[in-house]
Structure formats: C-alpha cells, structure tokens
Amino acid sequence: MSGAGVASRTASEPVSLPAELPVRLYMRALRQYQKLLDLRRLSSKDKVAVPGKEEERWRSKDEGALFKRWRRTPSTVEAPASTPAPATPTPQPSELLKFLAINALELSAPASDALLKSRSSEWFQLAGHPGSLAPAGPGTVWKRRAAGDHPAHNPERDAYEALAACPHMRSAIPRYYRELEYGGERFIELQDLLHGFRDPHVMDVKMGTRTFLEDEVSNARARTDLYEKMVRLDPKAPTEAEHAARAVTKLRYMQFREQRSSSAEQGFRIEAVKVPGEPPLTDLQKIREPHQIANTVARFLGNNEKARRSIITRLREIRDLFENSDFFKTHEIVGSSIFIIYDDERVGAWLIDFAKTRSVPEGLQVDHRAEWQQGNHEEGFLYGLDRLIDTIERAKLPTPGDEAATEPDVSR
C-alpha cells in the first residue's frame, strides 16, 4: 500500500511498522493534537467519559477514508499526496483529533524515547504485568499478547473484537482498533484510557472470586514448590497433612492466594490506586477486611462527592450492560478488571483485561454470581461488582484535615 494511499485495514489484519521512525512528524502531529484537545476540553466539563454519537460515526465501516498513512523510503519521508477538495464540510475537531492520532501512531513505536519524553507526566502502567503495555501514540496503547497463547489463538483479541462489535458493550470497554505485529511480537492496539485526563485519580480493581482458569488447576498432583511458596507467605497456612507431605496442589495454592486478599470473600480486590501528587499504591495484596477496603476507596475518592455519584452511576450502567449481554452469558470472565478514572472535569470506568476470557461448554450459561464449583465455570464477576458498588456508596469520605484516617492499611 502506498504511503499516500488511504488506510483500509480490517480490525484484525496484522500490520508491520518500520523500525526507524520520523520523530519530527510525530512531534508536530502531537502538538497539533494537543491544541485541538485543549479546545475540545473547554466544552466537555463534567461529562462522563463514554463514547458518543460523533465517535460512533468515526467507528463506522468507512472510517478508513478519514485517515492517511505516511511512508518512509530509504532516502526520504514522503508527505501525504494531495487529494481533491472534499465535497463534505470541513471535518470537525473530533474528526481532526482522530486523524492526527492515527498519523501519530503510524509514526511511532511502542515506548519510543520521544513519546515517553513527551508523555511522561500523563502515562503510567498502574498494575498488571510489567512491560505488557506501551504507549503508542496520542490516545492509544499497544498491549502484548499473553505469554503462552497459541499463535492462532488470541482470547483477548477475540473478546475485544466480539465486544467492540456489540452496539451496547463497546461503550463499556476501551476502544479496540486492531491486532498488529512489531519486532516479531504481536500486539493489540487499544484506547489509552488515561489520555485526555489531567492529573487523575486512578483505581484498578480485579474482579471475581476466582482469578485462575479451571484448566490451570485441573492437575491434582501435589507440588513441593507450591508448598514452599505458601509457607513463605504464611507458615501457618498448610494443614498438618500438607506439612507432613511438604506439598500442596495447584488448586489449594491458588485458593490460598485468593483468600489472602478480598477476592474470595468480596468478589473483588483493589490492585492499585494512584492519587495526584503521590506515587501509585500497588502493595495492596493484604487489603481484605471491609474497613480496610472502605478506607482505600475513600482515599481514592478524596472528598469528591460528585465523582463518587458519577462513578456509581457508571458502574451500575456497566452492570446492566453486562447482565444483558449474550457474550457474557456464554463466557467466563477470569482475571478481568474495572479501571476507574476521574479528574476535575470527567469520570470514566471501563472493563479491561480479557486474556483469560473463555467460552463455556455448549449448552451451559453462567450468571457470574453463583459460587464456583469445578466445572460450572462461575467466577463471581457480578457478585464482586455488586459489592464494589456498595462499598463505594458506603465509603466515608474524609473531611478537611481528616485525610490521615483514609490511609489504607498495608501492614505485613
């Protein structure tokens, strides 16, 4: 495809990008993009960050006509070819924003030095596997496919494609763009949920009473290495029989890990919290008592009652969409999270992380609230979401001078 040609890729078509990148063009696009973003932000105060009509139009089947792709030859960088004057009105700022975003993406590689330098104050990976995400352009990130996935099978890509195709569920997830290949590795390209927020409060909440797949614990062989890990975490955890055998099964060890956090009892655990002016809190594995969870939530909310109400409204919307989705009736959603963000202007919450999403056996449906038993594929996602909403509703927000009372208890 010519560099001046129109980009017309399908969402799942692999794309290889050049290793050497024209940083000058990228930085120019970035500056233009930020100016337009600032103009749009002036008219978007107090809005919940969910897709609207303008975005639906952009996501339509002829989206490729909006975007041009740059091509770099060994000796020069070509500018986009001239095109006839459009018969339609001049694109509005939201269309121009997306045009510049895609151009910038084509001129960047994940975690390029220029990109990280320009965005170091606004982008960070709050939780998850280190190195799995990389900023790719204004408003986009690349996520590396899960280790161990078969080359022909990418559950996370499949989940995002299925949910993005649903007119209702696409508003509950990050925008999904495509799968691509770079440097011999495969990535999926997603919306950067942090983009557009200024110095936000961020909370990553892992959902479910079970965060491991059933086939991960199907082997009933007792293992010495897992016993040793358990003893290092809690010497009193093994039973007398397990101490005598000096071995535990994978299922026993994984359930022990769930019980050390709030996952087993509450159906969710807070993975990480970031508040303005402070480093992220990621050492929250032992936050499991209701008062500890409430204190952590209160710290995240500060004294912002308006943000609390907007977050609750958004989480109830996600729950309604989830409950009425045919996709979720036939899939177990293991290890997924809800990502919550707010700043002085906007509030957003999305479902993320579908690497462990699997379809259930034919003829079986899951309600995501029932207790898990081997073979029923329940994972407690909605059980946890019910309790997360209740916790946020009940959390006592700090009054001025009382912030110390909301410090989460992370003592060991």
Which tags fit this structure?
11 strands; 412 residues; disordered N terminus; D-amino Acid Aminotransferase, Chain A, domain 1; alpha+beta; Kinase; 13 helices; four-stranded antiparallel sheet; 2 domains; IPK_sf; five-stranded mixed sheet; EC 2.7.-.-
Radius of gyration: 23 Å
Number of domains: 2
| Euclidean distance between termini CA atoms | 57 Å
Structural class by helix and strand composition:
alpha+beta
Low-confidence stretches at least 5 residues in length (pLDDT < 50)? 1-25, 50-124
Mean pLDDT: 74
Give the strand tally: 11
Q: What are the secondary-structure elements, in order, as H or E?
A: HEHHHEEHEEEHHHHEHHHEEEEH
The fraction of residues in strands falls at 5-15%
Would you identify the CATH architecture of the largest domain?
2-Layer Sandwich
* Major beta sheet, strand line-up: 1-10-9-6-7
Indicate the CATH class of the largest domain: Alpha Beta
Shape: globular
Tell me the CATH superfamily of the largest domain: Inositol polyphosphate kinase
Give a quick account of the main beta sheet: strands, pairing sense, barrel closure: 5 strands, mixed
Helix count?
Answer: 13
Helix content: 25-40%
What fold name stands as the CATH topology of the largest domain?
Answer: D-amino Acid Aminotransferase, Chain A, domain 1
